[in-house]
Fold this protein.
Amino acid sequence: MTFFETFFAMGGYAEFVWPAYALTAVVMIGLLVVSMSALRSDRKHLENLQRHVRPQRGQISDQLASNQETPNGDSGTEDVAVGEPATGDDGKA
Amino acid sequence: MSLHKFANPARFVRLSSPLLPWLWISTALLLGVGLVLALFVAPADYQQGESVRIMYVHVPAAWMSMFVYSVMAVASAVALVWRHPLADLTAKASAPIGAAFTVLALATGSLWGQPMWGTWWVWDARLTSVLVLLFLYLGYMALWQAFDDPQKAGRATAVLTLVGAINVPIIKFSVDWWNTLHQPATVSSLSGPSLPASMLIPLLLMAVGFMTFFSALLIIRIQREIIARKIRTLQMLQANPEAAAVTAASAEPS
Amino acid sequence: MLPSENLPLEMMVKPKNKRLSLLVVVSIILVAAVGLMLVAFEDNLIFFNTPTDIVEKEIEADRRFRLGGLVEEESVRRDDDGLTTRFRVTDLTHTVEVSFRGILPDLFREGQGVVAEGKLNAAGVFIASEVLAKHDENYIPENVAEALKKSGQWRGAGE
């Protein structure tokens, strides 16, 4: 057997070792992609919103948003009808 | 107050963003070198043969599943007691990562258990307590979805996290307190690691790599939560400027 | 602005301390409660019984349970049918005779840990329906183990 054949055979445990590594890679890369795309789409969404809100309002809301108890969390769906369509709900939802 | 000064979300974004490239570079290096050592250099085990290589992903994933929960527990305590503005967000951003690591620990453990133990799954104290950990993560995420008001959701989920935190020492010590099919700790045993350096080094590289991966991912996810909150405030302002302003103002920190 | 922001500092700190002490008290009660529960349910949390448990608990025949221990050295025998394996499980104090029909896991070896599920028959032989291998927390490179065995310095378990 060549080096690579031996390597991929994993001493007869290939069917267990490779799925373990593949699954780990898929889950970790998946987490990264989901988190990045959620951040990107929310960033875009926020820019759009800020363009539509009068600047004065925008400043106020920025202050409010940086406050701890500001009543918001997820890009909730109940406000969708009035604002921009809520893109990128929580990636895991 | 000084604590709240540092907890300012805008400041968090400003301070954490420059860390990201360094964290990603470290992650790539650690996991890259770790994988090469784990797959090509590390020796086969005298009992388990090549199947021992599953350890290099299973053990770091299992460690992270407990570590991420510990981070959430600390964040939840801070959220409940000090009302730290970033604490809720940290816990919320961590949960899916922790759940993913727990799934990985269970799945890779299963793939290791089948050839070595002769079974995919047993209901021993270690495996069962890790399954409970997964349900705690899933319950946490479901509870967030169940509330419209993030303030209430933050409180409820923080309480859930703290109650569930008792499970972390149970997982850790289950293999010592009860007899289980899962073997006791190798690396953190009192007599020192019963693992040769040729196996310990790749294991630790992978574990540290998982840790930097988690840190970078957590920063991204917290930044995203901050933006999501801003979006919500803006949408409320647009819909009903007066009401939103009043609600926001009345919710200012005490 | 909230009224509390105009209050003296010690008044502002109070609710925080109250929440902190509440958290500490609730946590202590929770830990105590879970601790008591775990002690109470200890018998159910145990995955297997050792040969000594069997002697001490006097487990009756025909009750299903799991037996765990080490496969005694030089005790493994294969019946003529080629399927049934007989071996003794020991915890170094007591031993139990085990009979198992089926395929053994890769790690099943003399001197290694094992967990078998089944029941005792009238003769006191444990008739296993499933045998799982248990491994210890020690990892040793294959070539190191071989070299040690060759030089006669081997003190570990296994063949």
